[in-house]
Amino acid sequence: MTVKYHGHAVLSFNNNDTDVIIDPFINGNDLTDLTVDNVKADYIILTHGHNDHVGDTVEIAKNNNATVIAPVELAAYIESQGVENTVGMNVGGEGEYEFGKVKFTHAFHTSSFTDNDGTVHYTGEPMGLILTLGEKKVYVTGDTGLFGDMELIAKRNGPIDICFIPIGDHFTMGIDDAAYAVNELIKPTVVVPVHFNTFPPIKQDPEEFKNKVNTTCQILKPGEAAELS
């Protein structure tokens, strides 16, 4: 199977004939290859409440009658927007679905959603994801700074076949911290950099990151896929 990258931190995959999209920030994302009307999703998984991750969740969920899996406070907010099917989870919790298992992990960041009128909603803690897809383990760190328990997360849930990690700096870890996390803590078979070049403050050269990690690094263009062999 494959996991596709769609610019910024948007990921998607199909497993067991089930379509899943993660952090579907499409409108306002100049890097993405997607349009909201063309997204097929049975499930939407959210790591945290920032607008560049929640993105078009409500519209996509309503278009597809999709289930939204998210941190519990964020799931409650999404439900308040008229989405009928939500599952609220919390750090350390794991759920099994048609496509596989989802386990939420710590991430060190912030989390809130801002409405068009400027109203700010508390959306719980930010989180990362461990996805168990058949025999494969995928670690989506979410937006985060560097923290030592990444090693514990990888040991408890690994070995990690592929890790999606931010390198943009400014709002998340930058290249040097991300490379340290990959080389010393997570030690995945494959790593894919995300959350860079979408906005001026997070402009980065992914080739620099690739040169600093000691594992296979796949730099994906929007619409390209990392293959879980």
From TrEMBL:
Record domain Metallo-beta-lactamase: where: 7-195
Pfam families, alphabetized: Lactamase_B_2
Keywords linked to the UniProt accession: Hydrolase
Superkingdom to which the source organism belongs: Bacteria
GO MF, any single term: hydrolase activity
Residues annotated as signal peptide: none
TM segment ranges: none
Similarity-based family: Belongs to the UPF0173 family.
NCBIfam families tied to this protein: PRK00685.1
Record protein name field: UPF0173 metal-dependent hydrolase BN1048_01072
Organism: Jeotgalicoccus saudimassiliensis
Encoding gene (name): gloB
